[in-house]
Amino acid sequence: MDIVSSYLSNLMLIVGSLFLLIGAIGLIRMPDVFTRMHAASIMETAGASLIIIGLIINTGFTVVSLKLIVIMLAIFYISSVATHALARACIHDNLKPNAINKESDQ
Question: What is the pTM for the complete model shown?
Fold first, then answer.
């Protein structure tokens, strides 16, 4: 059972790291601030969650795993609130998505 949990933990850590890497590369390719915010929030939430789940599996059920669960819940909450606040600030500054700008030019 220890070998299975070790492999599962390593798999979660690798997949979470790859998710963050691919998301970071994708951020460079996104056309405007709104799509970048969307990609960053999903990348942060999913990638960090996979890494934290891998760490929870690695440590077993201890006080450390409870702290990791609290951190994961905080990431879920704070990431969505921060993304919403940034999007509202962009809308307040009259920034428009590129898709809307391209349609209005035609």
Answer: 0.80
